[in-house]
C-alpha cells in the first residue's frame, strides 16, 4: 500500500481546488466532480417533488454549488427551487452566483405577508466574508481577484490583521458568555456538567475577530447580494 506524504496530499488538494475554480469560471463546462453531480440530482429531485431548498456553503463548497447550478441551468434544468443560498468565506464569487440565480435560473415563489396578502419572492444569495478571510477575499491586495480566490467584498470583521485566521470563524448567533448545555446547566469545555460557570472561549474568539458594536450585534451573519441590473 502506498502512503502519501504530506506534500503529495497538499499538491492533490491544491490541484483539485484549482480545477474546481477553473470550472466555476468557465461556467461548469468541464467534467463534474461527484459532489457537483450529487448537487444536480438534489436540485432535480427538489423541483420534481415540489420541495424548496435553503443552502449553506462554506469555502470550496461554494464552488460546488455554483458549478452545479451553472451546469444544471445549461442542460435545461431551470427554475431550481432555491429560496436562499448562503455563502461563508467562499471561494466562489457570489455576485456572479446571484446573477445566475436571477437571470438564468429565474425561480420565484409565493410568500404570505402579515397583512394577509401574498407576494412573489425571488431566490436570494447571501454572503458573509471576513476582511482577512484568505479564501473568500484574501488580505493580499495583489491576489484579491475572483479569478484567483473568491474575490468577494468583505462584509465585516476586523481589518489590517493579515495573519488573523478567520476562515472557520463564522457564527450563526452571538456565543453565550458562559458554556451551557441544551438544558441550561453549566458545562466545561469537554461537555461535562460543573457547578461553577465556565467562560465561553468562542465568545472571546468572536469578539476578537468580528469586533461587534453591541451585545447582540453579529457582524458575521451573511448579507443579501443583489443581482446586477444589466
Automatic annotation (TrEMBL):
Top-level taxon: Bacteria
Name listed for the protein in its UniProt record: Uncharacterized protein
Organism: Bisgaardia hudsonensis
Lineage, top ranks: Bacteria, Pseudomonadati, Pseudomonadota, Gammaproteobacteria, Pasteurellales
Amino acid at each position: 500500500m502506498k502512503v502519501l506524504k504530506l506534500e503529495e496530499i497538499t499538491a492533490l488538494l491544491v490541484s483539485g481546488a484549482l480545477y474546481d475554480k477553473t470550472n466555476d469560471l468557465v461556467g461548469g463546462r468541464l467534467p463534474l466532480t461527484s459532489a457537483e453531480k450529487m448537487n444536480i440530482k438534489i436540485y432535480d429531485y427538489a423541483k420534481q417533488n415540489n420541495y424548496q431548498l435553503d443552502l449553506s456553503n462554506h469555502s470550496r463548497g461554494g464552488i460546488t454549488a455554483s458549478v452545479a447550478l451553472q451546469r444544471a441551468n445549461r442542460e435545461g434544468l431551470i427554475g431550481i427551487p432555491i429560496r436562499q443560498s448562503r455563502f461563508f468565506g467562499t471561494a466562489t464569487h457570489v455576485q456572479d452566483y446571484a446573477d445566475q440565480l436571477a437571470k438564468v435560473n429565474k425561480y420565484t415563489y409565493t410568500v404570505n405577508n402579515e397583512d394577509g396578502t401574498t407576494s412573489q419572492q425571488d431566490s436570494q444569495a447571501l454572503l458573509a466574508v471576513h476582511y482577512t478571510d484568505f479564501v473568500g477575499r484574501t488580505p493580499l491586495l495583489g491576489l484579491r481577484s475572483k479569478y484567483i480566490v473568491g474575490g468577494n467584498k468583505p462584509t465585516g470583521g476586523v481589518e489590517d490583521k493579515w495573519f488573523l485566521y478567520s476562515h472557520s470563524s463564522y457564527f450563526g448567533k452571538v456565543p453565550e458568555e458562559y458554556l451551557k448545555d441544551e438544558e441550561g446547566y453549566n458545562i466545561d469545555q469537554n461537555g461535562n456538567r460543573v457547578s461553577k460557570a465556565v467562560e465561553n472561549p468562542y465568545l472571546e474568539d468572536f469578539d476578537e475577530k468580528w469586533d461587534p458594536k453591541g451585545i447582540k450585534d453579529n457582524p458575521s451573519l451573511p448579507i443579501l447580494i443583489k443581482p446586477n441590473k444589466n
